[in-house]
C-alpha cells in the first residue's frame, strides 16, 4: 500500500466496517478513524458534542454536518494520519464526500481507495440484534438501514465514477473478508 493512501469504508450498518477497519489499521499501522466511535466517546463523557449528537444517534438519524465536518478535519490533521488513515463511517452523505475531497486536495493527498462491504439486510439485522449496542434495537436498525439507503448509498455511484471503488462480499467469515480487503488494497 502506498504511504499516503487513505482507505474509506462504505457499507450499511453492521456490514463489518468497524471490525475490518480495526484489523487493517493494526496490519498497516495507520489510524482507524471512526466517527461513530468518536461520537459515542463524546456521549460517554457528556461533552457538548455528545449532548448534541445523542438524540440523533438514539433515533438512527445522521448527526448534522455542523457537528461532524470540523471534527474529521481536525482528526485528519493530526500527525499520526500523515502517512495514511482508515475512515469508518465518514463520508456518509454526498456533501460530506465533497468536503473530504476538498480537504484532501488542500493537503495534497494523492490517492484513496473506497471499500464497499456488501451484506444483505436480514444478515445485518441478525448481527446487530445479537450485538445489542444502544442503537441496535430492531426499530432503530431499520431506520439506520433506511438512512443508509437514502443518504449513504448514493456515494457508491459517486466513487464508482472515479474508479476507486472496490466491492467486497461481507457476508462470509471475518477472516475471509479481511483477506478479500487486503487483496483489493494490494491491486
Ligand atoms: P457508526 O458507529 O458508524 O455505526 P454504523 O454505520 O451503523 O455501523 P455499525 O458500527 O453498526 O456497523 P459496522 O459496519 O461497523 O459493523 P461492525 O464491525 O461493528 O454510526 C453510529 C451513528 O453515529 C449513526 O447512526 C449516526 O447517528 C452517527 N454518525 C456516525 N458517523 C456519522 C457521519 N459521518 N455523519 C452523520 N452521523 C454520523 O459489526 C457489527 C456486528 O457484526 C458486530 O457484532 C461484529 O462482531 C459482527 N460481525 C462483523 N463482521 C462479521 C462477519 N463477517 N460475520 C459475522 N459477524 C460479523
From TrEMBL:
Q: What is the lineage of its organism?
A: Bacteria, Bacillati, Cyanobacteriota, Cyanophyceae, Pleurocapsales
NMP: annotated segments: 34-63
Keywords of the record, alphabetical order, are: ATP-binding, Cytoplasm, Kinase, Nucleotide biosynthesis, Nucleotide-binding, Transferase
Tell me one GO molecular function of this protein. Answer: ATP binding
Q: Where mainly found? A: cytoplasm
A Gene Ontology biological process noted in the UniProt record is: AMP salvage
> Into which EC class is this enzyme placed?
transferase
Subunit relationships: Monomer.
Indicate which residues the UniProt annotation says bind ATP.
14-19, 131, 172
What EC numbers are recorded for this enzyme?
2.7.4.3
Where, by residue number, does AMP bind? 35, 40, 61-63, 89-92, 96, 133, 144
Highest taxon of source: Bacteria
| Pfam families per UniProt | ADK (PF00406)
The protein's name is Adenylate kinase
Record remark: domains? Consists of three domains, a large central CORE domain and two small peripheral domains, NMPbind and LID, which undergo movements during catalysis. The LID domain closes over the site of phosphoryl transfer upon ATP binding. Assembling and dissambling the active center during each catalytic cycle provides an effective means to prevent ATP hydrolysis.
**PANTHER family, per the entry:** NUCLEOTIDE KINASE (PTHR23359)
Q: What's this protein's family per the entry?
A: Belongs to the adenylate kinase family.
The record's Gene Ontology cellular component field reads:
cytoplasm
Question: What is this enzyme's catalytic activity, as reactions?
Answer: AMP + ATP = 2 ADP
Tell me where in or outside the cell this protein is found: Cytoplasm
The UniProt function text for this chain reads:
Catalyzes the reversible transfer of the terminal phosphate group between ATP and AMP. Plays an important role in cellular energy homeostasis and in adenine nucleotide metabolism.
Amino acid at each position: 500500500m502506498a504511504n499516503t493512501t487513505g482507505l474509506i469504508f462504505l457499507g450499511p450498518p453492521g456490514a463489518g466496517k468497524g471490525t475490518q477497519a480495526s484489523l487493517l489499521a493494526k496490519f498497516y499501522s495507520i489510524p482507524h478513524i471512526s466517527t461513530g466511535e468518536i461520537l459515542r466517546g463524546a456521549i460517554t463523557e457528556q461533552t457538548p458534542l455528545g449532548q448534541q449528537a445523542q438524540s440523533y444517534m438514539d433515533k438512527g438519524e445522521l448527526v448534522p454536518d455542523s457537528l461532524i465536518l470540523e471534527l474529521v478535519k481536525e482528526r485528519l490533521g493530526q500527525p499520526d494520519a500523515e502517512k495514511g488513515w482508515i475512515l469508518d463511517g465518514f463520508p456518509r452523505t454526498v456533501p460530506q464526500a465533497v468536503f473530504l475531497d476538498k480537504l484532501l486536495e488542500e493537503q495534497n493527498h494523492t490517492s484513496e481507495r473506497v471499500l464497499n462491504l456488501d451484506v444483505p439486510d436480514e444478515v445485518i439485522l441478525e448481527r446487530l440484534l445479537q450485538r445489542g449496542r444502544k442503537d441496535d434495537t430492531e426499530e432503530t436498525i431499520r431506520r439506520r438501514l433506511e438512512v443508509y439507503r437514502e443518504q449513504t448509498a448514493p456515494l457508491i455511484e459517486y466513487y464508482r465514477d472515479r474508479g476507486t471503488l472496490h466491492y467486497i462480499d461481507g457476508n462470509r467469515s471475518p477472516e475471509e473478508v479481511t483477506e478479500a480487503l487486503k487483496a483489493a488494497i494490494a491491486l
